[in-house]
Amino acid sequence: MSHTPHELAEEFPQHIEKMSALKVSDAHFAKMFEAYHEVNRAVHRAETNVEPIAQMAEVDLRKKRSALKDEIAAYLST
Hints:
The protein is mainly α. The chain has helices at 8-11, 16-25, 27-47, 55-76.
């Protein structure tokens, strides 16, 4: 398991199998899933000062991560 906080497997442990299946069978879900991980890694790098960015840019990334997470949660609840 990754040491990056907010990984989807940690956020939705009850849906790990469903996420795996959707990544293969649903192109839109796969795209959201990958976008979430890209944004989440960028947030983590900014928070840990591996790749520091302006505060407002970091806030924008967190908002994007939250929106993607909400969209993924809605997909998983159906």
